[in-house]
Amino acid sequence: MFAPLAVAGPALLLLLTAGIAALAVLAARPADRDLVQTVAAARRHGTVFAALAVLAGLGVTLAAAMTELGGLRTGQLLAVAPLGAALGHTLVLAVGELTWPRPRARRRSARLRTRRLHDVAPRWLSRSALASAAALALTCAAGALLADADGRSVSYSWPDLATSGGGPFPGWFYGGPVLLAGAIVTAAVLAALRLVLHRPAVEGADAATDEALRRASGHRLLRGATAAALLTTGALLWSGGHAAQGLGVDHQIGDEAPVHLSVPPPVPMLASVAQGAGSLLVLAAPALLAVPPRPLRRAGREPAAPLAVPTP
Fold first, then answer.
1. Which tens digit of pLDDT belongs to each residue from 143-156?
2. Which distant-in-sequence residues (6+ apart) come within 8 Å of 125 by Cβ?
3. Based on C-alpha coordinates, what's the Rg of the chain?
4. Distances (CA, A) of 254 to 98, 250, 257, 259, 260
5. 8 A C-beta contact, residue 143 and residue 174
6. Distance of alpha carbon 133 from alpha carbon 233, whole angstroms
7. Total structural domains in the chain?
8. How far apart are CA 126 and CA 7, in angstroms?
């Protein structure tokens, strides 16, 4: 469905923007010496796995771009490549949560507080993730309704004259694998968010710092999945609009001069809108991936419980 350059190009753009974002975060965040030692170690752990997750996602994308399955299966593979990258990204971050630094002190304390998923995920990013998932599902559903019976092309017929077709078009042939991959990524992200929710608190950190570390983890998880959904939706919209723009045929009756048959005016207009929206979403994906989590402020230790002094 997409040329390898169409996948490798955004992948390289994602790498560039992720690198710029990493430099911005390193410049803005406080130095390790300004943080409690355990907080600094936890932050380094999260940063390392965030970088490994981005590299894993890029590796999956480039591997898909260089894999030749032959025929139409290659197009299906490239269509799900961004979501495959999001799955690899999520799995690496989940490993980071499973290996999160555990408390080592003999005497430990726990905060009796009920956390929910929205407590570890920034509200704006949660809404962006839901909106991107809905846009992807609607795009696949609309493509399935408009596509021909083969699920990968679109056509328009002039009765008793001619039929014009174009492709590739995001019908069920491409939309089905995309929706399946999207469901798998969604399940993986929710499972990883639960790991963030239930992991032990950072030893020695105050409540605000521990919550900030959890929100940073949730930010990374949602950021990668949302960027992949935006990139996939944008590519599907652009491909569908491009196929619809090509509808039209030169028809000749007998010895008369050929007459160009055009589709009704709303069709090319909607196709242009789809291409424009798709281009914007493809550009929004790396921009979203470049948004860093909110940096930690100088962390203080959890205040010690007052000593009980016996009264005479």
1. 999 999 999 999 88
2. 218, 219, 222, 223, 226
3. 25
4. 74, 13, 8, 11, 15
5. yes
6. 9
7. 1
8. 26
Looking at residue 129, its amino acid is A
Residue 37 included in any domain: yes
Digit-coded pLDDT (tens) for 102-160: 876 555 555 556 677 878 888 999 999 999 999 999 999 999 999 999 999 998 887 77
Residue 112 corresponds to which tokens in the numbers above? 């009796």
pTM of the model: 0.81
Q: Report which DSSP code applies to 205.
A: B
Q: Tell me the H-state helices in 29-148.
A: 37-66, 72-98, 123-146
Closest by alpha carbon to 139, among 3, 273, 17?
Answer: 273
C-alpha 61/C-alpha 84 separation (Å) is 7
**Contact (Cβ atoms closer than 8 angstroms) between residue 190 and residue 93:** no
The long-range contacts involving 32-38, CB below 8 angstroms and separated by at least 24 positions, are: 34/298, 35/296, 35/298, 35/299, 36/204, 36/205, 36/209, 36/299, 36/300, 36/301, 37/204, 38/101, 38/202, 38/203, 38/204, 38/205
Task: Evaluate whether residue 311 is within a structural domain.
Answer: no
Single out the residue of 101, 19, 94 nearest to residue 49, CA to CA: 94
Give the Cα-Cα-Cα angle 44, 209, 50 (nearest 5 degrees): 30
User: Is the per-residue pLDDT at 80 higher than 50?
Assistant: yes
State how far the Cα of 216 lies from the Cα of 293, in Å rounded to an integer: 5
Sequence-separated (6 or more) residues with CB below 8 Å from residue 284: 230, 234
Determine, yes or no, domain membership for 255.
Answer: no
Residue 113 tokens read as 């507080």
Residue at 34 is within a domain: yes
The tokens describing 142, both together, are 């609309």
**Domain span at residue 143?**
4-101+119-248+262-289
